[in-house]
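step=encode ok
step=design start
structure_in=
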């Protein structure tokens, strides 16, 4: 089965040994994605802006694999402060209000950088 990968140039991709997204057959998996841009946290201190940024990165990766947000069947959100769920959820809803994939949001102790507030994984079925 053909395997197609998307890389974003993150230094962690080569160090850790992973890609941003992968398509095998009609299945697409997007790795945990954070609000890092050129080694700097985007939207520092802002749950809404970090979530929007991440979902834009994910949308682009899906597009490179021949899919779109409408093909997403699951999202997983790992947040460092669950009390901010409405801000994370508002941004998520702006991208998925008409698609409504299954979604999970859980609080975690920390992410790789203390200024990161959310990390998102996505599963999709390509057309």
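sequence_out=
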């Amino acid at each position: 089965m053909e395997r197609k990968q998307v890389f974003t140039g993150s230094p962690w991709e080569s160090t850790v040994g992973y890609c941003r997204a992968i398509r095998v057959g009609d299945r697409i998996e997007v790795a945990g994605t954070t609000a890092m841009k050129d080694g700097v946290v985007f939207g520092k201190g802002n749950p809404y802006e970090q979530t929007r940024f991440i979902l834009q990165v994910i949308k682009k990766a899906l597009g490179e694999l021949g899919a779109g947000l409408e093909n997403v069947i699951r999202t997983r959100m790992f947040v460092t402060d669950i009390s901010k769920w409405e801000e994370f959820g508002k941004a998520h809803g702006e991208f998925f209000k008409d698609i409504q994939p299954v979604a999970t949001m859980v609080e975690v102790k920390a992410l790789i950088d203390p200024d990161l507030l959310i990390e998102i994984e996505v599963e999709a079925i390509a057309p």
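step=design ok
step=annotate ok -> The mean pLDDT is 96.
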